[in-house]
User: Fold this.
Amino acid sequence: MTTLDEDLEDAAGVAGHGSGPVHPGLRRARAWLSRAVEPGTIDLWRYVDDHGPVEAVRRLRDGRAPTTVRSLIGARADQDATLADLQRAERCGARLLVPEDDEWPHLPLSALTRAVAAEPAERQHQSKRTQALVPPLALWLRGPGRLDELADRSVAVVGARAATAYGEHVAAELGHQLGERGWAVVSGGAFGIDGAAHRGALAAQAPTVAVLSCGVDRPYPAAHGALFDRIAATGLLLSEWPPGSAPLRHRFLVRNRLIAALTRGTVVVEAAARSGALATARRAQELDRPVLVVPGPVTSALSVGCHELLREAELGARLVTSAAHVLEEVGRIGDDLADPAPRHTTPRDGLSDLAARVLDACPVRTGVSPDRLAAVAGCDVLEVLRVLPALELADLVQWTGTGWRLAPQPGARPATGSGAAP
Amino acid sequence: MTTLDEDLEDAAGVAGHGSGPVHPGLRRARAWLSRAVEPGTIDLWRYVDDHGPVEAVRRLRDGRAPTTVRSLIGARADQDATLADLQRAERCGARLLVPEDDEWPHLPLSALTRAVAAEPAERQHQSKRTQALVPPLALWLRGPGRLDELADRSVAVVGARAATAYGEHVAAELGHQLGERGWAVVSGGAFGIDGAAHRGALAAQAPTVAVLSCGVDRPYPAAHGALFDRIAATGLLLSEWPPGSAPLRHRFLVRNRLIAALTRGTVVVEAAARSGALATARRAQELDRPVLVVPGPVTSALSVGCHELLREAELGARLVTSAAHVLEEVGRIGDDLADPAPRHTTPRDGLSDLAARVLDACPVRTGVSPDRLAAVAGCDVLEVLRVLPALELADLVQWTGTGWRLAPQPGARPATGSGAAP
Assistant:
């Protein structure tokens, strides 16, 4: 068993950003950083960015790093729990994802890289750590989901923990409909709206992502243990903090920026005034991601925050009442369909070759699975999942509850009375 | 008893727009027009505007008017029910208000005058009558309210007839709070939201205005007879159609433009998709009046129209949840208070002299009436009613349920524990 310093020395000789597998020493350096550095610390992220993770850790440990930087981790510099953390992760089926991995969600997180570049050099003028938009140094993942792919088609659904039955109903419906359409629901795993959104997605047998502010091996709240196990069975539990970490209060705020950054937009379902969900919405807005808000009865205290978001003109939040509205804002129809067809042409006319093939693969009556569609259309199942939402939005296909089929078209069936041509 | 034609001949020699009382012949000409012309007819409004009402009626009756204009009233040109209409109005306590009266709400209705001026000359290119924004030729009023003053501080509250308990609750609360703050609620007198808004205003002992699409002597719906009597006792029943007129279907649409035009803004409380309330909201937007929308549960079909209004970015509708939000949009705080005070100065600093005097007149404990405030402040009660909403919005005064008093200020009372200076 090699020591951390031996591993680092070994890794120092290897190019960090090659295309091959990540050097174990580099991963170990990131593991060390994930325990030593509280996420959101601007100057430490910059130090790692400047020197690379291996060299940064060596300098932090042997005293060559500037005192101003080293002081940000204090006594943690002398400790090393990397092997224990990596082994503990392995025991619960988790792994450490680092920016040098292919799976790292570079594109969504690049908004954080841009944001941290805009922070001033002088610490006293920088954003507070709980509000700073800083990329993560590493991510602990538990579950079979591939983070870059899930993030690419994901929506955050957040809201109050003390949600009402109305809010939980709407969150579960949204989660279910988004899941059905091949989108991953990302939330915080908390009671109330978070849990309902995850459960809705799971009910649609869709992968969902819980972004935690504690270790992925001891998710919080404990009463959601069974829910977290279900999420980890098909989707992902995700955390910046190493296994065993406690969900400290300030960590929730730091965590919220990740929920906003990983997703294409944030939906707030229920939020009281001054709710944590509002903080996530503001992060999304700072990252130029759509902020989508579900209204509620004006008589409900749990919708006050939502209505305030919608009343803030500068925020540009959009009112949504359904998954279709959400996908209108975050869906990239243009990728899979050509420009929206003018009304007098058929929606088919504008389809890409791939979309047309998937459409032709859909049966008229009995719905079939995306796998079956992929087999018939002659493409990958991920490609099928990618074009289905657009086809559904164009009213060309529909979900039967068990599979996908063609949507009935006006005039496309033998007319029963209106005399339309087939 | 003089005939119509004798009256008109007599009136023809008198200046129509003098400052004295309106000539009976002129009023009789307007009465004749109100029965002969369906409101919203662009070319007839223009003909009356060009020739004056007396000369226009004479020409329409003796055949000198162009056939294209005369054809718009057809057989009604030969009829005359003016005396019967005026007597019937008098019997139910109603009167005919004409643009030549001091009470005519010129300012709010000037938006209609501008809109009709923008209509093209060729009839086939003009807006449809049910959508055209044309000023009324005359208004039948029943009740003690003075229309110009009520309209000057009025808000339209409209919505679905088949409202839910939630919608009726919110409409009644809004009506009550607006009434308490000295604002007149204008609505259509229908079942559901309209009725609830009127009732809320009445419960605050505030005048309210029902704009009808039938005669003020036979209001529709009949089941609202008692409600209409209560409205007529303190506020106004108002109609463009002469006594005895039936509430024909197309008249509702024509009527809606008046609700939008008479008020400073339109609040939509509940509206299904394609609801009549949405038409009123669109009229308000065309007239550059704020469109304010109360959201509701996304699970309610009766809120679908409201949410659609809020999702239409071009409409610029604003989400509101309370009377305070409504008054932020329609209240003219600037008239009574200076620019909003910066946070570190006290709200008092920016007060106009009048507002400061009214504020100083407010007692600390027991609320007093606006009359009492006017007496102490040395001003008119209307001036008091004018500054109170702004003072209330600035959290300087509060309504106790029976009167106005100073609102408790942070640190303004002997500190009981936080040690704030008095």
